[in-house]
């Protein structure tokens, strides 16, 4: 399984640290040239590989960590998203509800990536918290997942476990997934909830 992070701002770098902690190779990309990302990627760890967005989009699992407003531009990197697992780590805070056509932000992104197997995850924690070791307080930091694709949810849950977090499924995006969807100038109830699952 190959992994990529599209977007190398605070959230993208925090997630790259999570992969590096577990010695899992991950491609990182942004609108900037791959060479411009190299110093920061090297500082995080040797398994963090800078690339172009086109190269990153070839991965089996892609974490979308670009600003929400840039998702349509990112969608153009592939002619077909069929079968790709895309983890939506974006937040649409500040985006007027009318701009979302009454949909959740994840549903809007799913429409822009037809055929992709979209899973909402890694968006509810601030980047500074996400960059920390998830093993803390005798437990593991929780990562919420929501998706309309059970198989993709299971695959992403396995990755979340591998990265050292505790996955908690909220069900479908239009149902439990609403608990992690920012709308207009409001945050959903589970955003910023830094929860832990105790080890038995």
Question: Can you put this structure into words, describing what you see?
Answer:
The protein is an alpha/beta fold and 200 residues long. It has one domain (3-198): NAD(P)-binding Rossmann-like Domain (Rossmann fold), CATH 3.40.50.720. Helix content is 28%, strand content 20%. The chain has helices at 10-21, 34-44, 53-56, 71-75, 105-112, 127-130, 150-162; strands at residues 3-6, 26-29, 48-50, 61-64, 85-88, 117-120, 135-136, 139-147, 166-169, 196-198. Strands 1, 2, 3, 4, 5, 6, 7, 8, 9 and 10 form a 10-stranded mixed sheet that branches. The two termini are 30 Å apart. The mean pLDDT is 94.
Attribute tags:
200 residues, alpha/beta, Rossmann fold, ten-stranded mixed sheet, 20% strand
Strand content: 15-25%
**Low-confidence spans: pLDDT under 50, at least 5 residues?**
none
SSE run: EHEHEHEHEHEHEEHEE
Shape: globular
How far is the N terminus from the C terminus? 30 Å
The CATH topology comes to Rossmann fold
Number of domains: 1
CATH superfamily: NAD(P)-binding Rossmann-like Domain
Number of helices: 7
Helix-strand makeup class: alpha/beta
Number of strands: 10
Query: Helicity, in percent?
Result: 25-40%
Main beta sheet strand tally, sense and closure: 10 strands, mixed
Q: What multimeric state do the chains show?
A: single chain
Averaged pLDDT, please?
A: 94
Integer-rounded radius of gyration: 16 Å
CATH architecture: 3-Layer(aba) Sandwich
Describe the structure in brief.
The chain has 200 residues and is α/β, with parallel strands linked by helices. It has helices spanning 10-21, 34-44, 53-56, 71-75, 105-112, 127-130, 150-162, and strands at 3-6, 26-29, 48-50, 61-64, 85-88, 117-120, 135-136, 139-147, 166-169, 196-198. Helices cover 28% and strands 20% of the residues.
């Amino acid at each position: 399984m190959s992994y990529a992070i599209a977007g190398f701002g605070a959230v993208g770098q925090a997630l790259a640290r999570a992969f590096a902690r577990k010695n899992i190779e991950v491609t990182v990309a942004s609108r900037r040239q791959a060479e411009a990302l190299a110093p920061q990627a090297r500082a995080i760890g040797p398994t963090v590989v800078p690339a172009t967005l086109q190269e990153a989009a070839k991965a089996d699992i892609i974490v979308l960590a670009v600003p929400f407003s840039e998702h349509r531009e990112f969608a153009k990197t592939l002619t077909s998203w069929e079968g790709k697992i895309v983890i939506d780590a974006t937040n649409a805070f500040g985006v007027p509800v009318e701009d979302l056509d009454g949909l959740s932000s994840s549903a809007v992104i799913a429409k822009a990536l037809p055929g992709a197997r979209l899973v909402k995850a890694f968006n509810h924690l601030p980047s500074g918290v996400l960059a920390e070791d998830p093993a803390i307080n005798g437990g593991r930091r929780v990562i919420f997942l929501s998706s309309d694709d059970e198989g993709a949810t299971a695959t992403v849950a396995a990755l979340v476990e591998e990265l050292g977090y505790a996955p908690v499924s909220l069900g479908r995006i239009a149902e439990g997934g609403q608990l992690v969807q920012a709308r207009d100038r409001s945050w959903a109830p589970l955003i910023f909830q830094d929860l832990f699952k105790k080890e038995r």
